[in-house]
């Protein structure tokens, strides 16, 4: 974009907020787009940042994948707001996500939590409004939880974040949310563990040849069991499939992987909905762990 725009000063993991924004905007400009996101297009145009040099684009897959993951999250938000129109959507690691403009119902509350440098940029581009609040702190610091109104229903969304944490940090955060937000829902995304390992080893590059930040956590069936057992108040676990895309990878390969027994344990991206029960002790005074009810994808 032009040199008159806002110049972001983000590095490391914070810079990835620009990556997802750019991919959504790129996809939303296509005539055969898989998402509508005019606000993302507007933001990219408002930023003085060398998107193409930093991230590049492969016309086939990257933006398409981002759009499909975004659609799963948007569908989950709409579904939650249909059941609880005045509920709160809490986006952990919200970055420059423009979901409010895609999925808001005119009544919900929205909270976005991110690191101070990202929230500072977001405040300049997308200021707070009566129904949208920004919280500048690490999600690993439980202070953000005090900002959530527990008298309303709560949906927490976590897209593109957990992989930058250590496994113990992910487990602790999920358990803390299960304890603190009875009745809430959390939808989180994770790369497969094998993919996360490749990224950590520097074996994955952007199409521009730059290295994404290292990732420390990812999913596989064993890790899925660990997350389910992270807290007794995790009472339901649902695996959410990606909708089919248009290209070879997202249109054919990944749908095949998703429906093929055993092979699907190696799918590159996992999106999961956790439901927390109403009783943070899980019905057991000593917080004895119990197996939550596991449901297959219900959509
Ligand atoms: C890949 S971006 C995803 C942004 C947004 N969820 C989206 O999908 O467009 C990762 C985001 O997580 C944020 N992040 C990383 N570590 C964080 C932490 N400890 N606490 C809060 N946010 C964090 C980054 O600043 C960045 O905005």
The figure for the number of domains is 1
Structure classification: alpha/beta
Assembly form of the protein: single chain
Helical proportion? 25-40%
**How confident overall, as mean pLDDT?**
91
How many distinct helices? 10
Biggest sheet architecture: 8 strands, mixed
- Please compute the radius of gyration using only Cα atoms: 19 Å
- The CATH class is identified as Alpha Beta
Characteristic key phrases:
299 residues, alpha/beta, Rossmann fold, 37% helix, binds S-adenosylmethionine
Question: What would you say this structure looks like, in words?
Answer:
- With 299 residues, the chain is α/β, with parallel strands linked by helices.
- It has a single domain, classed as 3-Layer(aba) Sandwich (Rossmann fold).
- The chain is built from 10 helices and 8 strands.
- Helix 1 (12-28) crosses helix 4.
- It is globular, with a radius of gyration of 19 Å.
- It starts with 11 loop residues before the first helix and ends with a strand.
- It binds S-adenosylmethionine (SAM).
- Residues 13-14, 16-17, 20, 93-95, 97, 113-115, 118, 138-140, 159-161, 164 line the site of S-adenosylmethionine.
- S-adenosylmethionine binds next to helix 1 and strand 2.
Topology, please?
Elements lengths: L11 H17 L9 H9 L4 H5 L6 H22 L4 E5 L6 H5 L5 E6 L1 H10 L6 E5 L17 E5 L8 H14 L4 E7 L1 H8 L20 H8 L5 E6 L8 H12 L9 E8 L16 E3 L4
Parallel strand pairs: 1-2, 1-4, 2-3, 4-5, 6-8
Antiparallel strand pairs: 5-7, 6-7
Helix pairs in contact: 1-2, 1-4
The site of S-adenosylmethionine has 20 residues, from α1 and β2.
